[in-house]
Structures are given as structure tokens and as C-alpha cells.
Amino acid sequence: MGWLFILSLIVALALVYKPLGDYMHRVYAGTKHNGVERVTYRLLGVRPDTEQRWGAYARSLLAFSIISIFFVYALQRVQDELWLSLGFAPVPDHIAWNTAVSFVTNTNWQAYSGENTMGHLTQMAALAVQNFVSAAVGMAVAIALVRGFARRGSDTIGNFWVDLVRGTLRILLPIAFVGALVLVAGGVVQNFVGPHEITTLTGNVQNVTGGPVASQEVIKELGTNGGGFYNTNSAHPYENPTAWTNWFEIFLILLIPVTLTRTFGRMVGQLRQGYAILAVMGVIAVASIVLTNVFELAGNATVPQAVGAAMEGKDVRFGVANSATFAAATTLTSTGAVNSFHDSYTPFGGMMTLFNMMLGEVAPGGVGAGLYGMLVLAVITVFVAGLMVGRTPEYLGKKIGAREIKLASLYFLVTPVLVLIGTAVAMGNEAGLAAMLNSGPHGFSEILYAFTSASNNNGSAFGGVTVNTPWYDVALGMCMVLGRFLPIIFVLALAGSLAKQTPVPESAGTLPTHRPQFVGLVVGVTIVLVALTFLPALALGPIAEGLF
Amino acid sequence: MAAFDPQQMIKSLPDAFKKLNPATLWRNPVMLIVEIGAVFTTVLAVLEPNFFSWAIVVWLWLTVLFANLAEAVAEGRGKAQAATLRATKRDTTAVKVSGEVVSATELKQGDEVVVVAGEIIPGDGDVIEGIASVDESAITGESAPVIRESGGDRSAVTGGTKVLSDRIVVRITQKPGESFIDRMIALVEGANRQKTPNEIALNILLAALTIIFLVATVTMQPMAIWAKGANPGIPDSLALTGDGVSGIVLVSLLVCLIPTTIGALLSAIGIAGMDRLVQRNVLAMSGRAVEAAGDVSTLLLDKTGTITLGNRQAAEFLPVAGVGEQELAEAAQLSSLADETPEGRSIVVFAKERYGLRERDVHDAEWVPFTAQTRMSGVNVGGREVRKGAATAVMKWVRDNGGHPTEQVGAIVDAISGSGGTPLVVAQKDQVLGVVHLKDTVKPGMRERFDEMRRMGIRTVMITGDNPLTAKAIADEAGVDDFLAEATPEDKLALIKREQEGGRLVAMTGDGTNDAPALAQSDVGVAMNTGTSAAKEAGNMVDLDSNPTKLIEIVEIGKQLLITRGALTTFSIANDIAKYFAIIPAMFAAVYPGLDALNVMRLDSPQSAILSAVVFNAIVIVALIPLALRGVKYRPSSASKLLSRNLLVYGLGGIVAPFIGIKLIDLLISGIV
Questions:
Q1: Which residue on chain A is closest to B229 by alpha carbon?
Q2: pLDDT tens over chain A, length 548 residues
Q3: What fold, for B282-307+443-544?
Q4: Binding-site residues from annotation of B for Mg(2+)
Q5: In angstroms, rounded to a whole number, what is the distance separating the alpha carbons of residues B59 and A178?
């Protein structure tokens, strides 16, 4: 069953790859604006036909994101005064900050319990809106970088507001609308009902909350956000009722990150370059999914061996294989939605979810973020490999000189530095250690996971750490902000310097970047660089736990 | 070229020690970190002395020293050459035209000096009066004297060379202290060596990797302290105590992980690359130019002298109907006996080789020399009047003598022109005898070179003043990709600009003053040493042998330079995998015994594992010095094939080699530590 599940996903993605990829290309390359867009631009006071240099593009993006953070924060703080609050109090300041940052950065780390903290209005107007626009921001950055490769001798890399509005209105909204209906058909709830008191079979009293779940669930996956309406996320039957909605949610997670490679190929005028990037993502993703499945099904740990299967923390609706696949998909992208408890995974299975995020979430990664992350890795690979063919390295005709490699290196540095310093500070600090609920290597893995998830804007949690303390809310919030916007600034600067160049024509002396040789090389460089960076930390966590 | 001499290592040792000065080392951030680590561990070893600590300290210092040694050895070779050059730069005096005698160092631009046979030319300049034979062996190493004369493209003279005959007046063109020899000395010494663009970029990547490993190592400390604290029953080990990983081990890990191999050899590779050019008698004015040579995608090659032997030579005698080949050959030979032009000589030689006609002495002959007006030459002897020359001129002469050349002559002439040759019509009085086919001969082996270029992705363009028809024929025969016929200096410049607008890098050679703008515009402009000083100023390389074919070698050297850097970078990073497998279990297996499974090399003890990794890391630098200086073997082939080969050798090799090396060192030292 597990294999069929994975195979059918691949087939479904293959079917939509071409039409959706080409459609997104038309969306971003088009010059016409529709009525709704024109009104939006007028309200925003932007001139949609003016292009921006990378600096202006970055300033617009940062301004938009900062305003978004303030808005989400404020709404949480005054939710009790507004409609549909369900009687919930204002969210405490440190949690409100953490949540605001978390949703604006497309992380969706949740330091709160969804259905017990947020009113319907906060869920819809603050959180769900950010699920759309933070995803559109990621896509905009990716498209801007691709423009950098595609353009010759250009000072500008597009217009942020146009990219943002089009990504939201023409790509995310229509797919989300259809997807929500499919989810509703599958049994996901969509209403404005408050908490219901229910007496369970065992006689306990339980509070069950309804709400606009389907509309939020669909964008949670489609925008690789991951912030669940409910605390238990996609393990909650109202969010993810059946095995086939589970399949559909994974499909939504992978949909845009995968098909963006086609858009990339179209924009640079060489489809095969898009296929090569897709192949790199595919090789890493399939290897990771298979390994996670293998580790979970083998159940190499004390408890699973005693009870016969690694079923702890997994829902019987999904079983081991489908849970493992979901776990791999959610960490390979920047989604962070979960349908099982990653903390309960076998040491090596849990390590795979960690390692997926440490790769920088590039296979296929978050919407947009995956593509630009992978392109930066391709640039680094081209630099080392390109020297070995005896030429100044070039990728898609653009030379990778000092400025380009500086920006690519800075991009690559950000998340490892945040993860390692964050974890180290937590391990050497009272406030950090006090939140630990477990000891031994597993306890350490939980902290490492929290900082890895926040810095890479994933948002999933291992659990086992009391993270809704002021210290963790601030520390992880900083990781989320820096882990999101520093790389974006470097990527946009890279786009700017690439766009200026006149491409070098291809010849037999050019390193071909569409062949299996290059695909293998990018996979190798990515895995080796990440492994070398994190091996000491992994050795003290999951590896020490797994090699007992 | 003597690739590598162990003697040089010993000779360079003092310089290697001098380079330990942090003020010199800061240019190399990777090695600076190693030095800081070495100082730090030395302090630790002094405070808490034991054999292991001191062994690590010694090998860390050796690591820095080996890196300095690599650079010192590379520089040493240039220094030897500079010393030879300096020896030729003796104090000379100069006699100005006014008769005033001054020291050569006081000469200014525009001064005019007189140099007579036996004197040293006091500075770089142009001959403005006279002609002389000059011995330039001091800079070219070539002992045969060359002719320098006023006007034309052979007017440039170099300071320090010796006039062998006659008297010339030279107008000085150099600024004081900036003579060609001065620049040459500075270049081979690497005195003001600038980092090249690729080197800067690579340094940035290495710095980034260093930062990552620095962070990975430093942040490990609180994690290690916590892990130790969480397992209270376990006794302290040399590597790990309640205070965390010992400073010695932490520094060892850091030094092993940061890319020391490439960091140590990077500048040596660059210096050696310049040096390889000097060995081939090419002076690059900047390292940037050498690097650009590797990127060149279009080569502009002058037809004459580069692709062809330079002189048109007789290749065929084509008689008209009714005339025998032998008869035509005899007439052609007769008309050329006194003709000293290369074409004329070739007719005599061809007649002898093919038709067995010996040279003979002709008495009472009246030689008719070639003039631009008549455009033919010949001889009047014993009543015979024989002429050879341009088709139109000779045919007019025949008609003037009352003859009627047949249409066949025109047909033969057109056929020869069409094939790229030059027709030379031979006639006697009122009868055309036939046509000599003069052909530009392509140098042997050129087609293979151009095929090679094509495989490397380089387009070759032949530049010629010939008409398009002739140009095409030669281009086809030589196998170049394209040609520019009837080329003027402006055409050449326009072609270069056009190629560059398309993103291509262009290399060319030139020697004339009219080549200067194109040389300046091209990315790699190689001026011939025989050329004018304007050409030498405009180009960014000078070929002392004045051999235009060398452009191809220059491109290969540029590529080899980049490949060597890339290969050693890959090797350096790939090495880290094995080092982790040595050091991580050595640090943590005491706390988490399961981690001993990572000790795949089965190293003897934690101490010997760590020391082996550090020793391997240092030794590999010395072991690779010869490779860095010689450069990675370069075989012209497509980028894909090159990459596969280098990945196999330096990527896979870089992963495997340290596993073997560290294990061997461990076997050697396990008894001692």
C-alpha cells in the first residue's frame, strides 16, 4: 500500500506538471491586469507597470511583511473586542509576537493550541490571509531570481506588488477554492460553530470546536504553511478525515513547489534546465521518503521492537507508511503540517525529518522558497564544478563571480548559523534547558528540531519542549524572522546582479547543467555540505540515540 | 620544464618561516585561523603539558609552515628568474643626440639617444633613424640577432639589449624605472601580484566554509557539556570532560574541517600558473589575463605566419593547350632565376624538385625586375623574352606583342583563384605558356589543433587581407570555424566588439601599430616581442618568441590554472568526510558508546585518531605541492568529459584517500600515543 501511495502521488503530480507550470509562467510573464488587480494597485498606490531594481523590490517586500506582522499581532491582542472571538481572551504578548512572525514568515510554528486560543476572525483575517500572502511572497522571490537568470543587461527584476497580487489572486486563490470543495467533500468541516460539549463513549466530557476549517486547511497545504486550525493539525479528523484526504493534502503540499520548476524552465527558455532542477529535488525527495519509510517500518528502537511496529504517535487511519510519507513531505517542503507525532518516530526516522529541513527545504521545498534555495545550491555547485572544467563558472549563461558567490555563500550560511547558535544557546542557558521534558540524546534532538524547524521556516515540532515560554517565543521568533528575510535579501541581490549580466553563449566548453551528471553533482554537493555542517549535532542527538 | 625539485623546498624554508608573521598571513583567512589555533593550543599545552597536546601543537604549526612553504617554493622559482634578469640590467650610460652623456636611469620619455655597435640600448624606445642588428638574448633567450630599423613594424627596441652592428637613434618611450625589464622582474617575482577575479571568488567560498565549520565546532561545546552532564557515571576522557571537549581537540577538529588543503595551495597555484607562462617565454602583464585565457571562446588568428607558413609557394605548373609541362616549367624557372622574392625562389625550387631542372648560370641576360606599375618580372636573354606576373598585366603584354591569349588562360586563372591560390601567368613574347599556381601552405598539424579547439568549445576565426574567395579556401583547408577576409584594423576591432557583445571573450595576437586598438579591446591580447611598442603597450601579454601559434598554449595554461583550483577545492572538501569518521567517535564514544560504530577505520584510540587526522591534514599539503606547481593534467576535451574525469580523481579520490591515509598514520603512531 505504501508504495502505491507514493507512486500515485508521483503520477498525479506528473499529470498537472505541464499545465500548471505553464500557467504560472503566463501569470508572471503577462502584461495585462484584470479589474480586481487594478483596484488593488490603486488602493495600494503602486504603479503596476513600473519595474523595480532589486533594492526597491526587497524594500517593498520587507515593508509589506513588517506591516503584516504588526497587523497579525494587533488582531490577536484585541480579538476579544471583535466578532467571532468565541469568548477567547487576547493572546499573550510573547505568543502573539511569535505567532505573527510565524505566519508572516510562512513558518506556521504554533506556540499555541489553535482551537483553544484563536477566535474565528483571528484564524481567518489574520492567519489564513497570511497563509496566502506569505506563500505568494515566497513565489515572488523565486520568480524574481529566475528573472535574474533569464534577463540580459537589465537593471530591474520585476515589480513586487504585481508578483504578490498575481500569485495570490491568479494562482493560490483559484486552486484553494477548488481544493477546499474537495476537502469538504472528503469530510473536512466548514462552518462558524463554536465549542460543543460532547460526552465520549468512556463517559469523559470533551469540547469539540467547529469552524472555517476546510478553507484554511487547503491553503495550509497549498502554500506550504502548515499552521493547523486545530492543535493536532492534520491528525485531527476535522482537518484530515480519511486516507484519501491524507493523500490529497500531500498532493497539495507538493503541487506548487514541484511545478514551479517547469515555470523556471519556461522563463529561462530551456525546459530541460527545469527538468534538471526537478530531478535534483526528485532524487533527494524520493530517497528521503523511502528512507523514512524504511526506518519507520523497520522500527529500530526499543519500544517498536517490543510492540511489533512503530505505531506510537501515528493514527490508525493512516498507518506507518502513509504517516512516514506525510512526515517526509512536510519537512522536505516548508509546510510543517503533521499527521503524526514526529517525536515518537524511531531515532533514524526522526533524523530524516530533521535532515530534510537541514537541507534547507529544497526538495522540493516551500512554495518559491524551495526553488530559490535549490537554485542557490546549483550556483554553489556550478562554482566548484565549473572551475574543474577550466572556465569561469557560469550557470544559465550567467557568470558566477565574486559578488554572486558572496551572496550565494551568505544565503547558505544563514540557516546553519541560526540553527547551531540557537541550539547551543538553548543548551547552555537555564531558560532553554528548563523547558526540556526529556533527557538524553532524545531530549537534545527535540531542542535541535525546534531551532531547525524555526530557522528553516518549517513550523513542524518534534514536541517534548515547553515552547510557549517567553524565552522560546522570542528566540524561535528571531530565528524565523532572520531565517526568512536574510536569505530573501541575499537572493534578491543575487537576482539583481545576475540580471545585469549579458549571458555567455553556450559552447562545448560550457559545463552542461541539464545532464544527469550535473543532477548527481548538485545532489552530492547539497548532501555533503549539509552533512558536514550538522554531523556533530546529529551525532549527539538522533545518531547517538539510534546507535545504542 | 623541471616540474619540481625537492631542493627548492629546502631552499624556501627560511621564507616559509618569515611568512608565519600574521601581518603576511592575514591575506589568507583559512591559514590565519590555523595559526590562531596553533597559538591557542600552544598556550594550552604549556599550561597542561602532555605528549598528545604537544604532538598536536607541533603538527598544527607544521600545517601553517607547509602552507607557507608551498607559496615560498612557487615564488622561489620566479625569484631565480628575476635574479638572472637583474644581472643583465647593468648601469649603462646614454649618449643623447646633443652629445650630452647621462646615466640611463635619468632618461625621460622623448629623449633621443645614439647607440652604436657594441653598446647596450639604455631604455625602451623606437628607432627613429638607422638600421642595426640587435642581440635580444637577454630577454628572449634567443641568441640569433634581430634587425631593428626606423619606421615600420620593426622599430621597437628594448632597454638592456645590445646593438651588434651599425648605428641607430632611439627615441625613449618608457618612463624612468618602468622599463620592460623592470616590469618583467616585478612580474616574475610576483611583487605586486593582485588576486585574480576567480581567486577572489574562491576565497569567498573558502571563507564561508571556514565560518560554517567554525560555528559547527564552537556550538558543539555547549551540546557536549550537556551530553556529558546528562551521563554522570562516565569518567572524564582526554577529549571530553565536564567542561566539554578539550581545547586541543576542538582546535584539531576545526583545523581538519576547514579547507586547509586548498587554502594552503591557492596562492601557489596562481603564482605557478604565471610561472608556466614565463617558462614558455610569455609575459602576462596581470594574472587576470591568464585567467581570462581559460575563458576565451573566440580565437582570432592571423592567417599569415600563424595558420599558413606565410609565403605563397609554387604548387603546380598548368600549361595551356599545345605547351608541354616541361616547357612551361623551364620558362617559369628561367624567369625566376634572378627573382629573390619568396615566390620566385619557390618556383625555382619546385621546378628542380618536380621537373629536375637545375639552377643554371645565364650569361648576358637582361633581368626585368618587378615593379608596382608593370606587375610582372622576367628576363630577356638570347632573343627570348619571358615574363611572369599578374594575369591582366602579362596578358596585356602579350597582346601588345601581337599575341592572342586563348580563353583557356582565363579559365585556368579563375580556377586557381577560386581554389584560394594565386595565379601567375607565364608568357614568352606573344604566346602565353601557362600558369603557375602559387599556394598558401597551411602549417602541418593546424587542422588537428583547430579540431581540438572546437572540442574545447573555442571558435577559431582566421583574419586575412586576402579576398573572400582565397580566404575561404584557406579557411576550409585549415579547418577554422570562420574567417574575416580583406580585413582592415577597423574590421578587426568591429569583429572583436561584436563577439564581446554576444558575451564571448576574445583572444588575438598582433604586432603592428595598427593592431594596437584591437589588442587593447580583446580580452587576451598577445603582442609579439618583435612588434612595435604601441602593440606591446596595448596587449596584456607579450610573447618573447613572437610565435603567434602560442595563443593556443596560453589558452590551455589558463584552463589548467582554473582546473587545478577547482580540483583541489573538491579534494579538500571531500577529505572532511573521513575526518569526521575519525574525530566524532573519538570525542563522544565515551559518552555514547554506540557512536563507536562510526569508527569505521577502527582507529586505535581517541588520541591516535585525532592526531592521525591532524597529521594527515598537514602531510597532504606537502604531498600536493608538486601538483599545485605543475598543475592538474589537462587534456583538451568537452566540459562534460573533463568534469567526469576530475570528479573521479579528485572527488572520489578525495573521499577515499583520507580513509586510507589516516588509517596508515594511525597504524604507525598507535604505539607511541
A1: A440
A2: 678 888 999 999 999 999 999 999 999 999 999 999 999 999 999 999 999 999 999 999 999 999 999 999 999 999 999 888 888 899 999 999 999 999 999 999 998 887 888 988 999 899 999 999 999 999 999 999 999 999 999 999 999 999 999 999 999 999 999 999 999 999 999 998 878 888 888 888 888 888 899 999 999 999 999 988 888 889 899 999 998 999 999 999 999 999 999 999 999 999 999 999 999 999 999 999 999 999 999 887 777 777 778 888 888 888 888 899 999 999 999 999 999 999 999 999 999 999 999 999 999 999 999 999 999 999 999 998 888 998 889 999 999 999 999 999 999 999 999 999 999 999 999 998 998 888 889 999 999 999 999 999 999 999 888 888 999 999 999 999 999 999 999 999 999 999 999 998 888 888 999 999 999 999 999 999 999 999 999 999 999 999 87
A3: Rossmann fold (3.40.50)
A4: 511, 515
A5: 66
Measured between alpha carbons, how far is A418 from A452 in angstroms, rounded to an integer? 8
Q: Name the phi and psi angles at B240, rounded to 5.
A: -135, 120
Q: Which residues of B are annotated as a binding site?
A: 339, 343, 370-377, 388, 511, 515
Count CB neighbours of A159 within 10 A: 23
Domain-wise residue ranges, chain A? 2-547
For residue B589, what is the nearest residue in chain A, using CA coordinates? Answer: A544
Closest CA to A380 of A332, A353, A413: A413
Q: Which A residues in the span 423-482 are in contact with B, Cβ-Cβ below 8 Å?
A: 423-425, 427-428, 433, 439-441, 443-444
CB contact under 8 Å between B595 and A544, yes or no, is yes
B649 touches chain A (CB under 8 A): no
The CATH 3.40.50.1000 domain(s) of chain B lie at 282-307+443-544
Q: A387, B202: Cβ pair inside 8 Å?
A: yes
Sequence ranges of chain B with CATH classification 3.40.1110.10: 309-441
Q: Give the separation between CA A125 and CA A71, rounded to whole angstroms.
A: 10
Given a contact cutoff of 8 angstroms between Cβ atoms, the answer to whether B171 and B121 are in contact is: no
- B299 forms bridges with which residues in the sheet? B460, B507
What residues have CB less than 8 Å from A140, skipping those under 6 apart? Answer: A61, A158, A160, A163, A164, A167, A368
Question: What is the amino acid identity at position A538?
Answer: L
Inter-chain touch B639–A389, beta carbons under 8 Å? yes
A326 at interface of B, judged by CB pairs closer than 8 A:
no
The domain made up of B309-441 has a fold known as Calcium-transporting ATPase, cytoplasmic domain N (3.40.1110)
